[in-house]
Hints:
2 copies of one chain form a homodimer. By secondary structure, chain A is mainly alpha-helical. Helices cover about 75% and strands about 0% of the residues of chain A. Chain A has a single domain, classed as Tetracycline Repressor, domain 2 (Orthogonal Bundle), CATH 1.10.357. The radius of gyration of chain A is 18 Å and the shape is elongated.
Amino acid sequence: MSTASMRQPRNENGINTYRRIVEAALEVLATRGWRHASVAEVAERAGVTRGAVQHHFKDREGLFTAAVQHIMDERIRRIEALQDVDRAPGTGTREIVHTVVELHQGQAFTAALQLCMAAADDPVLRSRVAAMELEVGARGFWALIELLRLDGKEQKVRTTVQAFLDSARGLGLAGILNDDSRRRAQVTDRWVEMLDELPRFG
Amino acid sequence: MSTASMRQPRNENGINTYRRIVEAALEVLATRGWRHASVAEVAERAGVTRGAVQHHFKDREGLFTAAVQHIMDERIRRIEALQDVDRAPGTGTREIVHTVVELHQGQAFTAALQLCMAAADDPVLRSRVAAMELEVGARGFWALIELLRLDGKEQKVRTTVQAFLDSARGLGLAGILNDDSRRRAQVTDRWVEMLDELPRFG
């Protein structure tokens, strides 16, 4: 038996099933919380058998951790893909900054947060989720430095971009219980200004 | 029977018991999460009877909500109290900013976050916790504007202070699973610079 926590699908049917399971897992985790999120409910919402879930994921921990990892990877790729967008001069920072903030909103953010809170009190889960958080954080940080053509060797650049990413996380938290969209838009516009003041290449 | 969710203690014995219960409630909520946080465990950790807990708090929801409200009030008061500290010129912003960031760390922050995540999926709890979040957020915001002697009529001042408070929340999240103290110190120092660049009174 494989020790990997997930088995990557190889054909289109497999990919669709995998995707449906991942999306159902995020929904169940976001709405039920870690303790009440069950593999059975994920299978039911995805419209597959429990066997199909077990075919792709070793166990419950593997299912929900891989689902959060999957959505984080997808979000980082969406940030990286902004590199290829043909932007009018001056609109670049705005689009990038608003995209990063919005990627910290919604059900996927809530699901990631539920996993994080569960991991705080579970040694095995903790080491996996902590490592994932560090890796995703570093990738997002460097993608942003590159996208904004900032000089990453400058301490001031690095700490300001970190402050922005922490702020995006904080805006994610603030959006869970209250409709925070108006305030969020204003804070995000301010970040466009603050990041545009940093030294950059080209 | 009173409909208030907590009965304020009037004498010193009552205040000590109330405080022990509140601290035990935060500890239980932070480590067990909402679903597994029980009144019995709070009473046991506080070294009081369940009856003593029921004397001060109407029900389980009232106990944990009041405990989080209590610690939030206490933290806002600690920020407000910085007003009275006799500071050397130039050291003011640094002390204030580092204090605000550190108040978003540790067990009390984790407990507040557990309550917030539980409230996301519970309509009754949601309206109480959402209102508390807005009220605490507004008080902290204006305390900070006043402490730093900033011009709160300026949009740029308001959005930058909001961005800082969101960043402090994000740093709170980042500190739950990983030892983030070194990065946190650097980001916080950068905030001292950014907030010191804002227009201020006097």
